[in-house]
Amino acid sequence: MSDLPDESHPEGPYDRLSETPRPKLSNTELSRFIDFIEKFEDVTEQSLSISQGYRELRMMIHLMRNHLAGRLTTPTSLADASGLSYGTAKRGIESIIKRGLILSRPRTKSGKTVSLHPSHTMIEEWENYANRIKALLGDTLGLDPKSGATSRIILEEPYQSSDVISPPAVLSQRLDMKGGLRVLMHADPTFMAMHNLKRQLEAIFGVGVTNKAKSIDSLREEILANARYAHSHYDIITCNLPWFGELASQDMLLPLDAFIERDGYDVSDFHPVAFKSSRYAGKQYGIPVQTTPELLCYRKDILESAGLKPPTTTEQLIRVARALHDPGKGFYGIAWNAARGTPLGHTFAFLMAKFGQPLINLQRIDGSYEFENATGDQLRPMFLSDAAFRACEYMLDILKYSPPNILHMSWYERTRCYAAGEVGMAYSYTSLAPLFELNEKSPAWHNTGFLPHTVGNHGRSFVPIGGYSLAIPANLSEERVESAWAALRHLTCRSMSKLYILNGSLVTSRFSVSRDPEVTALSPLIEAVDEMARKDLLQAWPRPPVPGITDLIHIAGNEIFEVLDGRRSIKKALSLAQDRADRVMRDRGFY
């Protein structure tokens, strides 16, 4: 019998990237303000007798708008936008460059042609200008930002500048990468946003960007295949957090510690558990780009109308699922990952954790489990534990209140099912939450509550962390490594993380991004996850980044499937899983 998942696209349609992604203007207050100022200037010039001078404002508007949209600006195009003669416009551009507001960057090694970009100083000045104009208009016209009676540009109350993250600025020097930047990414909304921002990224880096997206199992296979080449086909690869032990232990990834120390790279803004999960044997191999915990999502409106409280224990969840389950009306209690292979393997690992036991024999420390230096007996599989048996019993219980296609359901399908209003509850990674949180047509839009995993016997409240970090392949050609590190830093910086969210994602690995008012206004999910991270509820030990964990998840997802399908007893399936897991771990010398 095949061990492959039943569905060809277990994580949705995100691996089908357009060769020419639709350019998207960043949906920020700053971009709306630029539109307003352009119209404001037109009215001013038409109404007042004023000297045009160099028309610097018109040139700055053109430059800022192109930067936000990822469009190329050259000296010629900027001169044309000014409406001045070329000579006059050229002197104006040179004046702005000398004041440090425009960055002129060579487009080729010869330096004969250049592109023009707003400097970090110009971007900050425009953000400050926007806040001051809004305040001035409010004071002058007696407009109350909270009343809702103002125009869209003045609608929001001015934010504290310390909380608002500026749009990303371009690199001062283009990347030195023949053929452009090559990125292997995961197929999900965050990386779809990154792909849709391709033009902006190419403007930032000064080179072309080629993306390839793969679903989780295919992504791992591609990374393993790439490691066998003499020279990597990718400059940056996207790694699922549990893979770092496997990939780093086989010397497939480049350690980043020397770059971090040399550049004084500040890592304090990252979720600690995501950063720690990208380490192995005391070395850092990845930088987090998205933290996507698996949460229990529930319909607040439906539970409230049924007089039900949100469940916090496994027993309560079963009772709520039973109460909501109404197959005759096409409505079901709960959706979850039950498809054969990796999807069910993830579910089993998380459910074992509910009952207080990791998938392997990790050492318990301060109410959690230590995985970074796990060796020997600590890597022993625990399929014969009481927690493993209880996890199987729990799955059989909720199976009764699940959709009829539950045994084919994986990450995308369970969330799509919830977004379509077919179930009252669902386990879902936050990376797929845009299906209902950003979709006004979904019955779950603005009606969803978010909870940590329910607690079983001997367990404690926790949220299993998922997500991805960016890494550099160890076999990347030496002359490309510095540019790859520069690109990796920028792709994971807080301004880019915010931009991904403004273009369709809802996840971040940075605390500062979760505090940005433009970000928090999109969905209550942002603040909910941030609060869980600050309470240290996000945990990696249910699916720890240690060597061999991917094999154990695969074994669990295939042996336990036979239980759900009614072909094998719990005891027999766990015994077979333990035998298979022991052989794999011993053959590889892990214990």
Please tell me about this protein's structure.
Helices cover 43% and strands 12% of the residues. The protein is α/β, with parallel strands linked by helices. Strands 4-3-5-16-8 form a 5-stranded mixed beta sheet. The chain has a 4-stranded mixed beta sheet with strand order 10-13-9-14. A two-stranded antiparallel sheet has the order 1-2. Helix 2 (56-69) packs across helix 3 and helix 14 crosses helix 15.
Précis, in short:
By secondary structure, this protein is α/β, with parallel strands linked by helices.
| Strand order within the widest beta sheet | 4-3-5-16-8
How many extended strands? 17
Oligomer: single chain
How far apart lie the N and C ends?
Answer: 29 Å
The helix/strand class is: alpha/beta
Helix content: 40-55%
Q: What does the radius of gyration come to?
A: 26 Å
Number of helices: 24
pLDDT < 50 runs, ≥5 residues: 1-7, 22-26, 145-159
**Main sheet record:** 5 strands, mixed
Proportion of beta-strand residues: 5-15%
The residue-averaged pLDDT reads: 88
Overall shape: globular
Fold blueprint:
Elements: H1 29-47, H2 56-69, H3 75-82, H4 86-98, E1 102-106, E2 114-118, H5 120-141, E3 181-186, H6 189-196, H7 198-205, E4 209-214, H8 216-227, E5 236-240, H9 244-249, H10 257-262, H11 272-276, E6 279-280, E7 283-284, E8 287-291, E9 294-299, H12 300-305, H13 314-324, E10 332-335, H14 342-354, E11 363-365, E12 368-370, H15 386-399, H16 411-419, E13 423-429, H17 434-437, E14 448-451, E15 463-464, E16 467-471, H18 478-491, H19 494-502, H20 511-515, H21 517-520, H22 524-534, E17 538-539, H23 549-564, H24 570-587
Parallel strand pairs: 3-4, 3-5, 10-13, 15-17
Antiparallel strand pairs: 1-2, 5-16, 6-7, 8-16, 9-13, 9-14, 11-12
Helix pairs in contact: 1-2, 2-3, 3-4, 14-15, 14-23, 23-24
